[in-house]
Amino acid sequence: MARVLMKGNEAVGAAAIAAGCRHYFGYPITPQSELLEYMSVHLPKVGGVFLQSESEVAAINMCYGAAGAGARVMTGSSSPGIALMQEGISYLAGAELPSVIVNIVRGGPGLGGIQPAQSDYHQSTRGGGDGDYKLLVYAPSTVQEMAELVALAFDKADEYRNPVMIVGDGMLGQIMEPVEIVERPPDPALPPKTWATTGTRDHPGSRSIINSLFLKPEVLEHHILDLFAKYERMREREVLVEEYRVEDADLVVVAYGTTARIVKSAIAALAAEGVRVGLIRPITLFPFPAESLRRLPDRVANLLVVEMSMGQMIDDVRIANEGRRTVHFLGRTGGMIPLPQVIADTVRHILAEHHAGDVPHVSVGDEKGGR
Amino acid sequence: MAVVFQRTAGLTDAETHYCPGCTHGIVHRLVGEVLVELGVLDRAIAVIPVGCATLAYDYFNCDVQQAAHGRAPAVATGIRRVLPDRVVFAYQGDGDLASIGTAEIVHAAHRSENITVIFINNAIYGMTGGQMAPTTLVGQKTTTSPLGRDPRLAGEPIRIAEMLAQIPGASFVERVACDSPPHVKAAKRVIRRAFETQLAGEGFALVEVLSTCPTNWGLEPVDALAWVRDHMIPYYPLGNLRDPKKDAAARGGVRPEE
Amino acid sequence: MAKGRVAFDRDLCKGCGLCVSVCPEHMLELDTATINRKGYHPAHVVEGREDDCIGCALCAVMCPDQVITVEKF
User: Fold this and answer.
1) What is the CATH number of domain B24-250?
2) Is B198 touching C (CB cutoff 8 A)?
């Protein structure tokens, strides 16, 4: 398929269908509705099922039923809708069902706003629902990358029998970019879904049971330990990260998604002045690319985390950093987007004023240099 | 000599955890018998609720998905849309279906999902220890209506079958009871009819079964049967509210697709 | 001559007595001399009434625990 100009939300839908997704359950919400609309047009053309549910709660539970029946299934929403889905996402994780969930993040809390934000980092990477569990979380920064990660997400969901989340933001969902959608049928190496509830005639002599209830604590603990062994395998094998100009950097910025693109503009402007700045862009938010931070050159004394939030990913940066370098923060929130020149100014300020061990520079909102 | 009654192959050999005299066991058996008699046990998928029947994944002798509280109709929808040639049923209690799961059941009925729902109405929350349900009768004492249900505070008990029967997509709706042998035998015929509705592709079918909760009602099992007869049936009248056959007759015997 | 025969899986019986209450021949009772492995007095046929069974199976229809098998002659 040739490169075509598509909205991010539509590219997600096209990539999902190209990856063999034939079932989509969802509920309208800005800024994600184009995905729902795309699926309503295109899934029936390939013999698939599009169903507009009565709520996000119902949508995620329809995914549970469909995933348990062995289907490649997807749902999508935006922040408050994802919050409603968290119960079902926890059940998916507990029952080990593969599903792909797309979150086109908008500003919160509450009804918040409809502009791009990254304030669902915690909601995405900290479980989000009840109990001990993790999602595999991908954070693309271009429409092309989003399409590729959607395809990968279906294979990884099946491989690990775990829900996988694509975290975009309102900008990525709405922006139009050239994208090439590649047919990507399920990886033939994936094992057959012998656990699916398709009726005992398909597996005589045994019953398939999809369940997340384990009343005996020793059994539940064992189940959770198994889940965490799976998450550990994800940590070993599934980390994706872009390391950009970090080799000779004096300062390294950590940013993901749309924000990372803006940071690259700032890095280019600074490079023209001879200021060497690198970028670590986590592509998987879980597992977090901690190793990329740990192996930075010793002369990098300062890290700057830039997010469209009040600082959520910064927790993972601090955990990975283990106090080695000073971690600074620049954030815009509520749908506001950091400007390249503000990022560049912040970098200049840090390099001029700060040395290892100093109190970190924190900038949020529209005032440069502090609250 | 002929065996006229024995365990059904529709249920596993597992001993149930239900309290003595709880009629969940009767309804389980009726569903199991119907699945066997219709020859569909090996292509049936049960969706079980949160509540006393949560552990029914050990009892129904078919594939089972356990659903979050109230979400069984949405889960069953997901299964149905993937596997249109299987037999999908949800088994839900009154806390699950009539309280937290009203949105899911109403919209499954509206879409006329081709599923069968067995709805156990015993007028109380059993698993959590006897709290007031939406179906608790006026004046009925529970652990959260210690002076009896006050309709000024909690409203009148919800009549699910009548409510759902108003929905065009609710193809089959009937209320039955488990309080006597004739009623149990009738309940089996109705459950069979509800599954036949699904097998004919005629859409959403629900059977509301008036059941007992001797433990949380504080009654002996036999007295609990009498309580269903004397208190529940007068408020929750038995009978058919929707049937595709009746609806077709009302339209002059012509179904829309014919 | 008995018309039917009823048998109980006494280990699984929970002693609820629903079968006893619906038997038209009043030939069933809870065996208060026995405590089964579940801790209940299981149902059984009143001693000496075995031949009164008519094989109607109403007891089994009402049994929540599938412990009753009925034969009819």
Assistant:
1) 3.40.50.970
2) no
